[in-house]
Write a structure and sequence with these properties.
Helix content is about 30%, strand content about 20%. It is an alpha/beta fold and about 400 residues long. The chain starts with about 30 loop residues before the first strand and ends with a helix.
Length: about 400
């Protein structure tokens, strides 16, 4: 007899499995193929492809080589002193290798990731396998890609060889502190074909991991000069340069549609010497490479800079200016602090002006990287025919 609360279970179907037939474990089943005829289900095991990987060393838990290297790379001063940079992810690592940047060490956790790395033109690369959880602790990404590369930071001379400038534009970045913003600036400047990028002291380190990530390989295709003092800025700009300041805080000049480029801010005659050059307070010193450097101390004199705080440079619609065909410097400032008085002084010294992108819906400003890109492609549009003809002449010769 069964009580009322007793559970009763009846057999629904009995399957007879032949004893000579092995049942495969689910972990070994690579693919399930459903056949059309009947209801038969067959299991097909894919052939595993053999991975071709170079010899490597597996780090044990007590091996501190990985953590010591990452500690050094996370510190800006140590990173600069050693001349190293850290890159995460297969795509960016391969971009750096394709550009000829010297690879020193690869850390990985899965062989399939290592197999995708192109080790061409690379010698004496140290390849170390690290536990994924250890790598995940040091990764700057939300999802660790499982592979990291330590590279020698490329020199400016090396990047000059790799770059192919299309427009005669030098970017002057001042007080850009957001890594993603600077990374976008470098990426878009390389894509537009600028000549080089100058970063004043105070900008975020362009070889910091987040900037490299946002740059998407642009770092390896355009020369970048960092930590420039304002007193040294004249060493990086030729005397024939014209400065353009991207600024949305100024009002556009009435009737600013100029048919040709005009230098509106030439220095007064009384400020010029017998050779017609502008007189500024300068002296010559040497930098860390024992190279002669001209120093202009007026960029450090507060009383001198106060004169430029209230100066309103002429501001023009970005698409109405006829840009010169050489020696253009485009100034991009930080979005928070706006245009520095030293940038206004620089523009006055070099016959500069402001350019503005019109905005709608009461928006005050654009992201600095986006504003820069709009102006760069307007310059590229205007100078496109000139550079197409120049390229054709080179091919013919």
């Amino acid at each position: 007899m069964y009580s009322k609360n007793t559970l009763r279970r009846n057999a629904l179907r009995v399957l007879n499995v032949p004893s000579n037939e092995l049942v495969q474990e689910e972990s070994f089943i690579k693919k399930i193929k459903i056949k059309n005829e009947g209801s038969t289900v067959g299991f097909v095991k894919e052939k595993e492809t053999e991975l071709i990987v170079p010899p490597y060393e597996k780090l044990e838990k007590n091996d501190s080589r990985f953590t010591k290297t990452l500690t050094m790379l996370k510190n800006k001063k140590l990173r600069q002193r050693k001349g190293k940079m850290l890159i995460e992810g297969k795509r960016l690592i391969n971009d750096a290798i394709d550009a000829g940047i010297e690879l020193k060490t690869i850390y990985f956790s899965r062989e399939k990731d290592l197999a995708d790395i192109k080790f061409k033109f690379q010698n004496d690369v140290e390849i170390l396998k690290v536990f994924y959880k250890t790598m995940q602790l040091w990764s700057e990404l939300h999802t660790c890609p499982g592979i990291m590369g330590v590279f020698n930071r490329p020199t400016v001379e090396r990047l000059h060889l790799l770059a192919e400038p299309v427009i005669p534009v030098t970017l002057l970045c001042d007080n850009i502190r957001d890594p993603g913003n600077l990374g976008s600036i470098i990426r878009n400047a390389a894509a537009a074909g600028c000549e080089n990028i100058l970063l004043t002291k105070g900008c975020v380190d362009p070889w910091e991991h987040k900037v490299l990530r946002a740059g998407c390989g642009g770092h390896f295709r355009i020369p970048i000069i960092t930590d420039i003092e304002w007193t040294h800025i004249s060493n990086y700009i030729s005397k024939e340069t014209t400065i353009f300041i991207a600024d949305n805080s100024s009002d556009i000049e009435a009737g600013s549609f100029t048919p040709e480029f005009i230098n509106y801010d030439e220095a007064p005659e009384e400020d010029r010497n017998e050779d017609g050059e502008v007189e500024v307070k300068k002296y010559v010193t040497k930098n860390e490479f024992e190279q002669a450097v001209s120093v202009d101390e007026t960029y450090n004199e507060q009383t001198e800079l106060e004169k430029y705080e209230d100066i309103d440079l002429p501001c023009y619609l970005y698409s109405s200016i006829q840009f010169p065909t050489k020696n253009i410097v485009l100034y991009i400032g930080g979005e928070t602090h706006g245009v520095d008085a030293r940038a206004v002084k620089l523009a006055c010294d070099y016959g500069g002006k402001k350019v503005k992108i019109p905005l709608e819906n009461n928006m005050e400003s654009l992201n600095s990287s986006f504003a820069m890109t709009v102006i760069l492609y307007e310059i590229k549009r205007q100078l496109g025919e000139h550079y197409v003809l120049k390229t054709e002449e080179i091919k013919c010769n």
